Amino acid sequence: MSNNNLIEVVAGVLYNQQGEFLLSSRPAGKAYAGYWEFAGGKVEAGESRLAALQREFAEELGIEINTATPWLTKIHHYEHAHVHLHFYRIAANQWHGQLTAREQQSWCWQQPSNITVAPMLPANAPILAALAIPTSMSGHLNTGFHSATPQQSALKVLPYQCGLATTTMVYVPASQLKQLADQHPITNIWAICHNREQWVQAQIAAAIIWPVSSNEDIQQLLTLLQQHPSAVPVMVLQQSPSHTKIQPDWLTLGAHGIIQEQ
Questions:
Q1: Closest C-alpha to 244, from 225, 202, 216
Q2: Which of 201, 183, 182 is nearest to 191 (CA)?
Q3: Rounded to whole angstroms, how far apart are CA atoms 76 and 153?
Q4: Largest CA-CA distance found in the chain, in angstroms, rounded
Q5: What is the DSSP string of 66-127?
Q6: What is the pLDDT of residues 234-260, one digit of tens each?
Q7: What is the CATH number of the domain that holds 231?
Q8: Which residue, 53, 84, 99, 100, could crosslink 6 as a Cys pair with Cβ 3.0–4.6 Å?
Q9: Does some domain include residue 130?
Q10: What's the chain's Rg over C-alpha atoms?
Q11: Whole-number Å distance between alpha carbons of 239 and 195
């Protein structure tokens, strides 16, 4: 199926001051009524994605979105529709107003490590897994990475080697993904990328690691985030010492998080 046949849909991961995100239930009369999801909806003809996101949140929840940050894209095939989902993150300081259930739906604040509502809309399982990845990590490419601050979800990701338990989160070069997937759950494998071909290969991984040690690395990643948004979280590995220009604000450009090399 070509992308021309896909319905363009936006969805927002809305955060509060406590770092929790919002889930709402689909109202009666809609497909998958009662299932929980991230608020959003269809992009209308002539409408920008941000404008669609702002309209949907106003119509569904009565709040105003000032701005939002591109995050992940997904293609999902439902029985009733084939959709191209564009997920945005909306920080606590990027929206205002009083949440109101304008479609008689339910809503609640959740944490990635403690989802208390069900059932979830099928397309959202990988989104919830992505939200559990910290936005700040540290470590070294040779030894592994871990959560940078105690306030964030504890996570360790290790370089793959034979004998590691299949429950261990590991990383490998993107070119080795398919081979390793025969021995290790793909949901536990991160891929290291340096170019567009590897970026494409890595879209089946749990996350992408993009090392940045030169201006060329920065420019390649900026181009990919703009022209080929990722379906999986992108972690920018800021290597040091680095003779690069000032680092872009990666989190506002579509990257999920930063890994600071130590």
A1: 216
A2: 201
A3: 28
A4: 57
A5: ---EEEEEEEEE-SS-EEEEEEEEE-GGGEES----TTS--EEEEBTTB----PBPGGGHHH
A6: 999 998 765 556 789 999 999 999 999
A7: 3.20.20
A8: 84
A9: no
A10: 19
A11: 17
Tokens read off for 165: 């338990």
Give 154's contacts (C-beta < 8 A, 6+ positions apart): 146, 147
Q: Is 99 in the same domain as 80?
A: yes
Count of domains forming the chain:
2
56 lies in the same domain as 171: no
Residue with tokens 């420019």, as numbered in its chain: 219
Read off the tokens for 73. Answer: 């894209």
Residue 226 · residue 218 · CB < 8 Å = no
212-223 per-position pLDDT tens digit: 999 999 999 999
Question: Are 149 and 90 in the same domain?
Answer: no
Q: Is the pLDDT of residue 84 over 70?
A: yes
What DSSP letter does each residue of 184-249 carry, written as one string? S-GGGEEEE-SSHHHHHHGGGSSEEEEEE-SHHHHHHHHHHHHHS--SS-EEEEE-SS---SPPP-
- Residue 256 token pair: 């999920």
Whether residue 148 sits in one domain with residue 225: yes
pLDDT in tens, 116-175: 999 998 888 899 999 999 999 999 999 999 997 765 668 999 999 999 999 999 999 999
pTM score:
0.92
CATH number at residue 49: 3.90.79.10
Residue 131 lies in a domain: no
Contact 105, 229 (CB under 8 A): no
Owning domain of residue 169: 136-261
